[in-house]
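Weekly structure sync, notes
Attendees: PL (lead), two postdocs, one rotation student
Agenda item 3: pending single-chain targets
PL asked that the sequence for the first pending target be pasted directly into the notes so everyone works from the same version. It is reproduced below exactly as submitted, 318 residues in total.
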Amino acid sequence: MGSSGAATSRGWFGSYLLLAVLWGCSFLFIATALRSFSPTQVAFGRIVIGLALLVVVLLVRRERVRVQRRLVGDFVLVGAVMTAIPFVLFGLAEQRVSSVLAGLVNATTPLFTALFVALLIPTERPDRVQLGGLVLGFGGIAVLLGVWDAGAIDLVGGLMLLGATFCYGLGNAWGRFRLTSTGLSTVATPAVQLVVGALVVLPFAVAAPRPGPISPAPALALLALGLGGTGLAYVLFWRVMSVAGATVTASVTYVIPIVSTTLGVVVLHETLHWYEPVGGAIVLGGVALTQWGAVRRRRTVAAPNLGTSGAPVDTVAR
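Predicted structure, written out during the meeting:
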């Protein structure tokens, strides 16, 4: 059993670490790309480059993508709030605040996801543990942003970051609510979302002037952001999900801020205020409570559905 567990771990752990690094690097790449491109151009570029990679994967797998007509509206909504809007908001925000803060605020996504899941899916209303996690997590946001000092942070930039994670939370929850039985693969689904995102951002990217001439570092950062943080990250995310499960995959939330903060301080020489890591830790504590509460509830729901052999007969998780 030990060797089997080790083999399984080897099957996902490398992908897990690479996923955390790619998503953690995204905030550095955005900050660098903004030297030559506008926020909408950065968003459009990463979407198109990431989409190109997913299209290659679909072609190699000879997979045809067909979206049911009844789901078109859902894909438009999810594509807009999971790609177009938050990608632009992160770019706009990083013109005003540090990549360190952007990476830390990004960790609030599971809190908004839990909030919207509770609103959209009545069977998954939060219990006391999850409510405590939400309260703790949103309290952590106040610490993270240094709300007691009006001059500590650019308020508009902070609200843009929260707007982006708000969108991610809505998109995650709406996807669970409406897009769990689309008939599409785990590569085709994000590809459709990226198509929507590209169409939404295209006119704004074309109309926006570039802040300066295109130089190698911003261009390479945008390429890495698209290929790694957008395209490859989707593939890795679903690989880890299929091998290690949702709980392990969700824990990448705790690793991303470590990567983004380290890169912001070491590479970009950004200032790290004491309340940012403290607030980030409080947020992650709230995230841990909400996720633990959800896992505990799923186990409670699954337990009565166990057959005499101890195997699940028909559980919510399945």
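Discussion points:
- Residues 305-318 have pLDDT under 50 and may be disordered.
- Residues 13-298 form one domain.
Action: rotation student to compare against the earlier draft before next sync.
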